[in-house]
Amino acid sequence: MWKRTVQGKTLTFHLAGIHNQNFLMRDEETGSFWQQVSGECIAGSMRGAKLEQVHNDELTVARFVKESPGGTVLLGEPGHTDSYERDWEPGIDKLPAVVDTSDSPLPPRALVAGIAVGGQARAYEASRLAAELVILDELGDVPVVLWSGGGRMLRAFERRLDGKTLLLAPADAEHLRDAEGGLWDFRGCSVEGPQAAAKACMMPVSVLWDYWFDWRAYNPATGIYGR
C-alpha cells in the first residue's frame, strides 16, 4: 500500500499491465509507469521517483472488527460480485515464472513473507510460519519478532524498546510474554507488566506476502530464514 502523493503531486492510478508478472500501474497525471511491488516509477517523466509506503496488515474480518469496531471494509462493486474470481491462486501457481530461481532452494512460486529492515532482507516460508507461529530473528542490528495468527494473518515488530531487546514467547493464543513476565497483545502493545502503564507498543515492521521469484527479483540479496 502506497501514498499516492509524490513530489507534491496527487496521482490517480489505474492498471496498465504486467511487468515481470507483477502489477504495473500508470498515473493519469503524467502518464508514468509504476511498479506495484516496489512503488518505484520505472518509465515516464517521473522515472526514479518512489511512492511512500503506508503500513498495512493482512487480517481476517473478525480480527479487524475486534481491533477496529468502527472501521470500514471495502466490498466488491454491487452487481459485479460474480465477476470476482475468489480462488485464482491455484491456477497461477502452475504458471512458469519469468525470474530464474534455479540456484536457490525454493521453487519460484513458493509463498513467502518478506521483510526488509536494518539494511537486510529476509524471506520466511509460509510452511515455516505455519509450524513456528512466533519467530525471533535479527536483520542487521534490528531484532524482530514475527507472530502468525494463522493463514496469512501475520504481524512483525521491532522487539527493541528503550534500547532493550525483548525476549518473547507465546503465553496463549492472544498474547506473548516477555522475560520479565509482561504480556503483549497482537497489536504489539503491552497489556500487563512494567510497560503496560506507559501503554508501550513495539514498532510495526512491514511484511509482504509474495511469491519467492518476485520477492527475490526486487530483493536480490535476500536471505531465507533457517536456510
Topology, pairings included?
Elements: E1 5-6, E2 9-10, E3 13-19, E4 22-27, E5 33-35, E6 41-43, H1 61-67, H2 89-93, E7 111-117, E8 120-125, H3 126-131, E9 134-139, E10 142-148, E11 154-158, E12 160-161, E13 164-165, E14 168-172, E15 175-178, E16 183-185, E17 190-192, E18 203-205, E19 208-211, H4 212-218, E20 223-224
Parallel strand pairs: 8-20
Antiparallel strand pairs: 1-2, 3-4, 4-5, 5-6, 7-8, 7-19, 9-10, 10-11, 11-18, 12-13, 14-15, 15-16, 16-17
Task: Tell me what you see in this structure.
- It comes from Nannocystis punicea.
- This is DUF3179 domain-containing (Seleno)protein.
- InterPro entries: DUF3179.
- Pfam families: DUF3179.
- With about 230 residues, the protein is mostly beta strands.
- The protein has four helices and 20 strands.
- It has helices at about 60-65, 90-95, 125-130, 210-220; strands spanning about 5, 10, 15-20, 20-25, 35, 40-45, 110-115, 120-125, 135-140, 140-150, 155-160, 160, 165, 170, 175-180, 185, 190, 205, 210, 225.
- The strands form six sheets. It has a four-stranded antiparallel sheet with strand order 3-4-5-6, with no helix packed on it. Strands 19-7-8-20 form a four-stranded mixed sheet. The chain has a four-stranded antiparallel sheet with strand order 9-10-11-18, with no helix packed on it.
- A hairpin with a 2-residue loop joins strand 1 and strand 2 (about 10).
- The longest helix has 7 residues, at about 60-65.
- It is globular and about 55 Å long.
- The two termini are about 30 Å apart.
- The mean pLDDT is about 95.
